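Let's practice the habit of predicting before peeking. Look at the sequence and jot down your guess about where helices and strands might fall. Then scroll down.
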Amino acid sequence: MHHSSLKKHMYYVDDSGYIQDDAIVYVGATLRVTLLLRRDILMLSRWVRTWYGKLLRPFLLLLARLGITPHMLTISSLLLMIMTGFLLSQNYMFIGAIFLLLGGLLDGIDGELARVTNRATKFGAFLDSICDHCGDFALSLGLLWKYLHAGASTEVVLIFVALFGSMFGSQVRSRAGVVGIDTKDIGLATRFERNLILIIALFIHQIPIALWILAVINNIAALQRVIYTVHVALLQKRATVVE
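Done guessing? Here is the structure:
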């Protein structure tokens, strides 16, 4: 292997004449590990997406005939999430789980309704994203109220950590999109899995376990997006240098 004068900058030219650098090699190796984890975890949501659109098509067409729009479903989902947060703050775990389930279902079909009725717009995607974040905050606020009154400091910290990971992951996706890097499908778990974990925990009265899981996977997912973005940016930089 012939090293170039770029070595002091951690660059070198391989035997094929391509410029390499140690950062790309390291990030690439890390990325392969994180993506391996992602395939295993996201199998459930991917599997659901392969069939639920076709299965729900008759129901979605019925909603369209009744005059129900995707925006209505999006707003309704947000209202259900706000109600879920209130119910959890008052320790109504079982009813809260039902409201969370309903809110998640509406959030899952608003986009499908938009596609079925050819109403998919950039504003709809914007509204959906804003409502998702507001719903997540309402849910976290309800849990925070519950555990603050119980004096459970560990759970309070976990709620903040989990919420930070969720918001940070979204911010990374947004900023990466500005520079043309799509991280939509990057991450250990989607909102679908996160809500499912919490719904199960509410039904079996094991919220602290769910908070530990969410605190970990939300931040790992955000880190995966950071790694992926850095990886792609370095590859783009290398391609520019080679050209």
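How did you do? The radius of gyration is 22 Å.
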